[in-house]
Amino acid sequence: MNRPLIFVFLLVSFWSVSAYAMKFSAYNGDVYFDHRMHRLLYECKACHEGPPQHFELDHESGHKLCIGCHRKESKGPSRHCSDCHKTS
Length: 88
Prior knowledge:
By secondary structure, this protein is α+β, with helices and mostly antiparallel strands.
């Protein structure tokens, strides 16, 4: 196999694993998470323990991971529920 073909394969694999946007349902409004943007800015280990894999966020883990990081980085929403939770 030549190098350009390997590079294309790896690139396609990366984009297929790295989902673009995810929706987490919550009683007070859905939370939309732009995985692609976060993936471009941070390493997988910033959120994932061990190899990256799908995981579900519940109320406690979502707030700890998301709000905790946003406050630590002084970026993104972290003050009001409606900053993240959107109702239709």
